[in-house]
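Structure ticket #2291
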Amino acid sequence: MDKTTDSSQRNDIKDVEHRLKSIFGGSIGNLVEWYDWYSYSAFALYFSPVFFPDSDATAQLLNTAGIFAVGFLMRPVGGWLFGSLADKYGRKQSMALSVFIMAIGSLIIGCTPGYRQIGIAAPLLLLFARLIQGLSTGGEYGTSATYLSEMATSKRRGFYSSFQYVTLIGGQLLALGIQLVLQNWLLSAAELQEWGWRIPFFIGAVLSFIALYLRRHIDETAAFKNKNAEEEEETGIKALLKYPKELLTVVGLTLGGTIAFYTFSTYMQKFLVNTVHLSKEKSTILSFSSLLIFAILQPLFGLLSDKIGRKPLLIGFGVLGSLCTYPILTTLSGATDTVFIFLLMICALIIVSGYTSINAVVKAELFPANIRALGVGLPYALTVAIFGGTAEYLALWFKNIGHESYFYGYVTFCILLSLILYTTMKDTKHHSKILD
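Resolution: structure written out below.
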């Protein structure tokens, strides 16, 4: 082996190590940010009575889910703000700022007294904290999706970008894992309801500051550096509006996928308690176990997309989601066997993986570098705010009026709409605007 070949191999190894280090740093921040976001949902079963006392259980969850949905209204603002910052000043700077803001929101929730102590100010502070977290999360998706996609090589872009949902799900797993520890080993149910639910929010704030440190020490992407090295390109909303087809594609891509994801992940824990009538502890264990498998599936599906393309996975999700969502939810609602319930949950999450594993890279591949973070983040955040953020509230509302099955049909219809787009769009693996 000559010196030139040896030097080339060492450079290749260093390049891989550099990419992995950056992807790890970006992913860890993503995990922490989504942990903070999902802690709200995971512990809502306990703190709902603290902020909304003297109501029946479904009404309490409705009030809490309403604030959860309102938090999504800030996500388009976050998608615009942080996406614009990422395209103008860098992906790294935008991601560091978003995780810092998330830490502030978690601290507010952890420190806010209950309704009995400060009255109406309690739910108002809870609302304010969720609005802050919504702003942060709205910016996180587009920027981190862009960062991970740009850091990956073209041959492994589906694989590396899938780690966005690995860490997104990992954040939910961490929230549920802490819940399991508190439920089963550290605190009684009464202690959890009274004050123990505050612990995960304090943990989240600490982890957010650790993630902030990590993100301040990752490298900027070559795509952003190259963009700045060339003649200054226009950024912002005005530049983005020159790509109407791509914007509508992001909306159509996201519509069915986000509703399916929130139904079978975030809402599922409440569904198991409120509809299937499992205990809080058992529903937490089932949710944790199913989401762990879900996280493991993401890079496998990402690798598959690098082999066969993105479009076949999206069509698979659209077809199976349209055919199976209603039967799965209907069967789950009347199931009693724990193993059978778990298998149904896994089936649903396998189907959803056709969307979650590759949706970030598909959206990133649609746009040029000067508007990529904004193009991914803003239309995605708008769609999630309208459909994903309201999924849990709609499910509880339909249940409250005695027509829970209407929600099953609603989810199915939205997936079907996305399927129409999947069948007509180009495969972004072969038409990517990301340049190595």
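Closing remark: The chain has a mean pLDDT of 87.
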